[in-house]
Design a protein that fits this description.
This protein has a domain at 9-122: Orthogonal Bundle (Helix Hairpins). The chain is built from two helices and no strands. It has helices at 9-58, 65-167. The longest helix has 103 residues, at 65-167. The chain starts with 8 loop residues before the first helix and ends with a helix.
Length: 168
Amino acid sequence: MARFVFQLDGVLRQRKLAEEQKQRDLAVVEAEMTALEAQLRELDQSVQSTTADVRTNHLIGRLDLNFLAAHRRYIAATQRKALDLAERMAAVRVRLDAARKALAEAARERKIIEKLREKREAEWKAAQARKEMAALDEIGTRIGYESGLRQAAEEQAESIRKLAEQAS
Protein backbone atom coordinates (compact mmCIF):
# COMPACT_ATOMS: atom_id res chain seq x y z
CA MET A 1 0.00 0.00 0.00
CA ALA A 2 1.16 3.53 -0.73
CA ARG A 3 2.60 5.62 2.07
CA PHE A 4 1.87 9.29 2.70
CA VAL A 5 4.91 11.52 2.16
CA PHE A 6 4.71 15.10 3.39
CA GLN A 7 6.97 17.33 1.32
CA LEU A 8 7.51 19.77 4.19
CA ASP A 9 8.62 17.25 6.83
CA GLY A 10 12.01 18.96 6.99
CA VAL A 11 10.36 22.29 7.68
CA LEU A 12 8.17 20.69 10.35
CA ARG A 13 11.22 19.14 12.03
CA GLN A 14 13.01 22.49 11.92
CA ARG A 15 10.00 24.24 13.47
CA LYS A 16 9.82 21.63 16.24
CA LEU A 17 13.53 22.08 16.94
CA ALA A 18 13.12 25.86 16.98
CA GLU A 19 10.23 25.53 19.43
CA GLU A 20 12.28 23.23 21.67
CA GLN A 21 15.13 25.77 21.63
CA LYS A 22 12.70 28.52 22.63
CA GLN A 23 11.51 26.30 25.48
CA ARG A 24 15.11 25.86 26.63
CA ASP A 25 15.72 29.61 26.38
CA LEU A 26 12.60 30.26 28.45
CA ALA A 27 13.71 27.71 31.04
CA VAL A 28 17.08 29.46 31.38
CA VAL A 29 15.43 32.84 31.96
CA GLU A 30 12.91 31.30 34.39
CA ALA A 31 15.79 29.70 36.31
CA GLU A 32 17.51 33.08 36.50
CA MET A 33 14.31 34.65 37.82
CA THR A 34 13.90 31.86 40.36
CA ALA A 35 17.47 32.38 41.56
CA LEU A 36 16.88 36.13 41.96
CA GLU A 37 13.65 35.49 43.86
CA ALA A 38 15.48 33.07 46.14
CA GLN A 39 18.18 35.69 46.80
CA LEU A 40 15.51 38.25 47.63
CA ARG A 41 13.81 35.81 50.02
CA GLU A 42 17.18 35.09 51.67
CA LEU A 43 17.80 38.81 52.14
CA ASP A 44 14.35 39.28 53.61
CA GLN A 45 14.80 36.31 55.93
CA SER A 46 18.23 37.61 56.98
CA VAL A 47 16.83 41.05 57.78
CA GLN A 48 13.93 39.56 59.72
CA SER A 49 16.19 37.27 61.75
CA THR A 50 18.73 40.00 62.58
CA THR A 51 15.94 42.43 63.48
CA ALA A 52 14.35 39.80 65.72
CA ASP A 53 17.76 39.15 67.30
CA VAL A 54 18.27 42.88 67.95
CA ARG A 55 14.82 43.16 69.52
CA THR A 56 15.23 40.17 71.78
CA ASN A 57 18.89 40.49 72.79
CA HIS A 58 20.12 44.05 72.32
CA LEU A 59 17.27 46.28 73.42
CA ILE A 60 17.30 45.06 77.00
CA GLY A 61 19.43 46.66 79.65
CA ARG A 62 22.26 48.92 78.58
CA LEU A 63 22.03 49.89 74.87
CA ASP A 64 25.11 49.58 72.70
CA LEU A 65 24.72 52.48 70.26
CA ASN A 66 27.63 51.31 68.11
CA PHE A 67 25.92 47.93 67.65
CA LEU A 68 22.60 49.61 66.83
CA ALA A 69 24.33 51.90 64.30
CA ALA A 70 26.05 48.89 62.73
CA HIS A 71 22.70 47.11 62.56
CA ARG A 72 21.15 50.17 60.90
CA ARG A 73 24.00 50.25 58.34
CA TYR A 74 23.48 46.53 57.72
CA ILE A 75 19.75 47.13 57.14
CA ALA A 76 20.49 50.01 54.74
CA ALA A 77 23.02 47.89 52.81
CA THR A 78 20.54 45.03 52.63
CA GLN A 79 17.86 47.39 51.34
CA ARG A 80 20.27 48.57 48.62
CA LYS A 81 20.93 44.93 47.70
CA ALA A 82 17.19 44.31 47.62
CA LEU A 83 16.65 47.31 45.32
CA ASP A 84 19.47 46.07 43.08
CA LEU A 85 17.84 42.63 43.00
CA ALA A 86 14.48 44.21 42.22
CA GLU A 87 16.00 46.11 39.28
CA ARG A 88 17.64 42.92 38.00
CA MET A 89 14.35 41.08 38.41
CA ALA A 90 12.56 43.76 36.38
CA ALA A 91 15.11 43.32 33.59
CA VAL A 92 14.71 39.55 33.76
CA ARG A 93 10.90 39.93 33.64
CA VAL A 94 11.27 41.82 30.38
CA ARG A 95 13.46 39.02 29.01
CA LEU A 96 11.01 36.46 30.39
CA ASP A 97 8.11 38.12 28.57
CA ALA A 98 10.14 38.24 25.37
CA ALA A 99 11.07 34.55 25.73
CA ARG A 100 7.41 33.62 26.30
CA LYS A 101 6.35 35.57 23.22
CA ALA A 102 9.10 33.92 21.17
CA LEU A 103 7.98 30.49 22.39
CA ALA A 104 4.35 31.26 21.56
CA GLU A 105 5.37 32.39 18.07
CA ALA A 106 7.47 29.25 17.52
CA ALA A 107 4.57 27.07 18.69
CA ARG A 108 2.20 28.91 16.35
CA GLU A 109 4.55 28.42 13.40
CA ARG A 110 4.89 24.71 14.18
CA LYS A 111 1.11 24.31 14.48
CA ILE A 112 0.63 25.95 11.09
CA ILE A 113 2.85 23.34 9.43
CA GLU A 114 1.18 20.53 11.41
CA LYS A 115 -2.26 21.70 10.27
CA LEU A 116 -1.01 21.81 6.69
CA ARG A 117 0.35 18.27 7.11
CA GLU A 118 -2.99 17.06 8.48
CA LYS A 119 -4.85 18.71 5.59
CA ARG A 120 -2.53 17.22 2.97
CA GLU A 121 -2.75 13.78 4.59
CA ALA A 122 -6.55 13.97 4.58
CA GLU A 123 -6.49 14.95 0.90
CA TRP A 124 -4.09 12.08 0.17
CA LYS A 125 -6.34 9.59 2.03
CA ALA A 126 -9.36 10.84 0.07
CA ALA A 127 -7.47 10.42 -3.20
CA GLN A 128 -6.42 6.91 -2.16
CA ALA A 129 -10.03 6.06 -1.33
CA ARG A 130 -11.16 7.38 -4.74
CA LYS A 131 -8.50 5.26 -6.48
CA GLU A 132 -9.58 2.18 -4.52
CA MET A 133 -13.21 2.79 -5.39
CA ALA A 134 -12.31 3.23 -9.07
CA ALA A 135 -10.31 -0.02 -8.98
CA LEU A 136 -13.17 -1.84 -7.26
CA ASP A 137 -15.63 -0.45 -9.82
CA GLU A 138 -13.35 -1.68 -12.63
CA ILE A 139 -13.12 -5.12 -11.06
CA GLY A 140 -16.89 -5.21 -10.58
CA THR A 141 -17.44 -4.16 -14.17
CA ARG A 142 -15.06 -6.85 -15.45
CA ILE A 143 -16.68 -9.52 -13.30
CA GLY A 144 -20.10 -8.43 -14.50
CA TYR A 145 -18.97 -8.41 -18.15
CA GLU A 146 -17.31 -11.82 -17.86
CA SER A 147 -20.36 -13.18 -16.05
CA GLY A 148 -22.58 -11.83 -18.81
CA LEU A 149 -20.36 -13.42 -21.49
CA ARG A 150 -20.33 -16.73 -19.62
CA GLN A 151 -24.11 -16.61 -19.23
CA ALA A 152 -24.56 -15.76 -22.92
CA ALA A 153 -22.23 -18.62 -23.89
CA GLU A 154 -24.13 -21.01 -21.63
CA GLU A 155 -27.44 -19.88 -23.12
CA GLN A 156 -26.05 -20.30 -26.63
CA ALA A 157 -24.70 -23.76 -25.79
CA GLU A 158 -28.05 -24.67 -24.25
CA SER A 159 -29.93 -23.48 -27.32
CA ILE A 160 -27.52 -25.44 -29.60
CA ARG A 161 -28.02 -28.54 -27.46
CA LYS A 162 -31.81 -28.15 -27.67
CA LEU A 163 -31.61 -27.73 -31.45
CA ALA A 164 -29.40 -30.79 -31.68
CA GLU A 165 -31.89 -32.79 -29.60
CA GLN A 166 -34.78 -31.65 -31.78
CA ALA A 167 -32.86 -32.53 -34.91
CA SER A 168 -32.11 -36.03 -33.76
